[in-house]
Structure formats: C-alpha cells, structure tokens
Amino acid sequence: MNSRDSEHIIAQLTEKEGYETTDDMPSADLILINTCSVREKPVSKLFSELGVFNKKKKEGAKIGVCGCTASHLGEEIIKRAPYVNFVLGARNVSKITEVLHKDKAVEVDINYDESEFAFDDFRTSPYKAFINISIGCDKACTYCIVPKTRGDEISIPDALILREAKRAVDNGAKEVFLLGQNVNNYGRRFSGEHEKVNFSELLRRLSKIDKLERIRFTSPHPFHMDDEFIEEFASNPKICKSMHMPLQSGSTKVLKDMKRGYTKEWFLDRVEKLRSMCPEVSISTDIIVAFPGESDEDFEDTLDVMRKVRFDQIFSFKYSPRPETEAEHFTNVVDEDVASFRLTTLQNLHTDILDEKNAAQLSKTYRVYFEDLNKDYFVSGRSDNNLVIKVKGSDELLGKFKDVKITTIGRTIFTGEVVG
Ligand code: 5AD
Ligand code: SF4
User: Which of 245, 288, 315, 336 to mutate to test the pocket of ligand 1 (most atoms within 8 A of CB)?
Assistant: First the structure.
C-alpha cells in the first residue's frame, strides 16, 4: 500500500511539478520519506534517518515526511525535526503538490476523502500494476493503529478501478494487484451514489478485461470470507491461486480480545472450504505473538493452527503497543523473554513445515510470469500460486509467461529451467 502511495506521489510530482526520481540523495531537490507506523520500530528509525538526510542533503533541498507516521505524529514531526519542510498524511497523498509549496505545511486529516481522486500515472514496474480499490479501514482491531492513520473505509468506484486496470493492460501489464486494508469488504461504502458491487462482482468485472491474465489482491479479511468469495476465487481462472489469510492468533480468546470478529474454528473452516474447492492454493498469513493476556495455552492454539494449515508463508511479529489503540491500555502484558521465545518457536515450526513442503517442489513445472532482472544473469518471476522462481536468462524473458521446471530448492526462491 505504501509502495502504491509512493507511486501516486511520484506521479503527481513528475506530471505537475516537473520532478524526476533519483537514487542519489545528496543531489536531490526534494527528499520524501514514506513511513509506516504499524509497529514501533519504523517510527524510531524515522528520526534517525531524518537526521542523516538533513546532514547529507544539498543546500536548499526540501524534506517531506509522508505516510502513516505523518498521519499520527503530525506537527510533532516538525517540532522534533525543525528542518522538515512538510508533513503529508497517508490519506492526503493527492495534496502533495499543495504542501510542496507551503513551508511547514501539515496535512494529516484522516477524514479527507480522496477515493475519487484521479492520480496521474506512474508505475515502478511495467509488468504488474498495483491498484487501490479502497482507502481506510472500518475495523477496530484493538492492536492496530491503521484506522487512526488511514481513517474510515471508502471503496473506490469500480469504473475508476476498471479504467485504471485497462490503462495498465494497454501499457503492457499482464497482472494487476488490487490493494486495500480489507479487499473482500469492497462495496460496503462508496463516497457518492454507487450501484451495489461487492468484491466478487468486482473480480468478475476485472477478469473480463482482454489481455489481463492475472489478478492478485491483498489483504482479504477472514471474517468476510464467505462462500461466494471463495467460490469466485476458486472458479475464476484469472485469479492467482494464492490467498493471504491474516490469522493474527489461533486462540479464540485472544481473537476476541483483538476484536477480529472470527474464531479459531471459523478460520479453520474457511481454510478447509478454500482447499476443498482449490487444492493448489497457497496460503500465507500474519501472526502476532504475545498479545496482552496470551497464555501458553493460547499460544499453543496458534501452533495448532500452524500445524493444521501448514501455511506457505508467514509474516510474524511480537506484539508492539501502539498509541491511540485499545490494547495500548491492556495491562496483562506478556514478558519480553516469553514473547521472544514464542516468536522463535513459531518461526522454527514454520521453517520445518516449509522445508518439508518445499522438498516436494523438486521437478515440478509451473507457469511463471517474469518480472525482475537480477544482477547475476537470472530473471525471476512468480508462479500462479506465488512461488518465486528464477532462471538463467536475459531481459527478453521479462513480461513473458514460460513453463519452468524446478531444479533447485531454496527456502524462499527456487531455481529452474524453462521447458516451454
Ligand atoms: N503489533 C504487532 N504487529 C502488528 N500488526 C499490526 N499491528 C500490530 C501491532 N500493534 C501486524 C498484523 C498485521 C500486519 C500488517 O502487521 O499482523 O496483519
Ligand atoms: Fe488494522 Fe484490523 Fe484494519 Fe487490518 S483489519 S488494518 S489489522 S484494524
């Protein structure tokens, strides 16, 4: 999501203000930092990075802080780092061309509605287009700062999404990647009058675009994984068979404390339904360990779900208290060493599962869409079910689909050879 926000910012700056991007910070006229605030670490990193940028920037260069930390700290950022020229919140991206010209501007209104703003076009990759389908988040997970930085959820009108997808495809992209905090809650609220379109219907409409071959999305919410959604996912050949299902915890009690809206049993039921309709699906997840009040038994439930589901990829975190969240005030904090032990236990279990799963991939053949040219004469891409696979080759492979047989197993990247 932040990557797409950055593309929007770059689009506005290049089209309206004549900027070009550079990787050479000391020669830049403008330095922008797009920040995350989901956990505490990136926030403290922001101020140390700002100090470095201020020292190394050229005379007169401006510094802007964008994103979720901008939303939540606002003018505090300029108080702590007075050389910062402006602060632009995660829900005010379209105002980049305004704040640029106002010294010490702070635009962080989380009620600002930019769901229908027509951003100019800039894409980091010509092969795959990130497309926002909603802004904000209507949930109130007790650990999460996002509703406070990105505001209420508003769906982007489907006509705009379809237009953006068509334009990307006309420019050569064969894959679109739909983005939203809760993509499968799409259509719950639009800014203006809009016909009723849910996420399954949006997927059906998108898949009618000729020459669009692959659709991916993140993140769906387990609570909204109804049968219609799973059936559309399984039966629509353009939808990549890779599902992110953020579990957060395997304990029904902890899920309740987190206000996630589902139980361990519901999650397992959805996985079963998904796998019964779509056996080849790969499933990834997010897990938080050591949420306040998480007992050994609760954590054992998380391990139990891990053993049952055997996720293909996990993103796992120690709970990090965030300001303006409900859980910030929970007092039944888990000891730091217990938290570290649980994180390591979870990650070790996952590594064992992955090693077993990966071993079975040897000699299998996947259709790979090549997107990246690596420095060492390898070109890499993804299979439909999201395996990262690289082959020896040149940029001629980029943007093409090829059948690849896996010859070497890695933990996160496989090596193969083109067979068709
Ligand atoms: N502490 C730890 N992890 C968090 N996440 C969100 N908020 C927190 C927090 N306070 C994790 C969740 C979410 C992912 C993007 O970040 O797992 O799905
Ligand atoms: Fe945060 Fe929950 Fe919204 Fe995800 S669904 S962004 S975890 S509040």
Answer: 288
Mark which of 223, 240, 257 sits at the end of a domain.
240
The Å distance, Cα 321 to ligand 1 centre, comes to 10
Strand partners of residue 32? 64
**Last residue of a domain, which of 51, 74, 107?**
107
pLDDT in tens, 216-237: 999 999 999 999 999 999 999 9
Which structure tokens are listed for 387?
């395996």
CATH number at residue 83: 3.40.50.12160
**Hey, which of 69, 314, 317 would you mutate to test ligand 1's pocket, going by the most ligand atoms within 8 Å of its Cβ?**
317
- Structural domain includes residue 78: yes
pLDDT, tens only, 314-350: 999 999 999 999 999 999 999 999 999 999 999 999 9
For residue 260, give the ligand 2 atom closest to its CA.
2
Number of domains in the chain: 3
Strand, helix or coil for residue 135: strand
CATH number at residue 378: 2.40.50.140
* pTM (2 d.p.): 0.97
Q: Determine the residue type at 344.
A: T
Domain span at residue 409? 365-418
Ligand 2 surroundings by CB, under 6 angstroms: 137, 139, 141, 144, 146-147, 181-182, 221
Q: At what angle do helices 158-170 and 199-206 cross, to 10 degrees?
A: 30
Residue 220 near residue 261, CB atoms below 8 Å: no
- CB neighbour list of residue 230: distance below 8 Å, 6 or more residues apart: 270, 273, 274, 277, 278
Q: Could you tell me how many helices (H) and strands (E) the chain has, helices first?
A: 13, 17
pLDDT at 245: 98
17 and 87 both lie in a single domain: yes
**Is 102 contained in some domain?**
yes
Please report how many Cα atoms fall inside a 13 Å half-sphere around the Cα of residue 398, on the Cβ side: 15
State whether 96 and 135 are in the same domain.
Answer: no
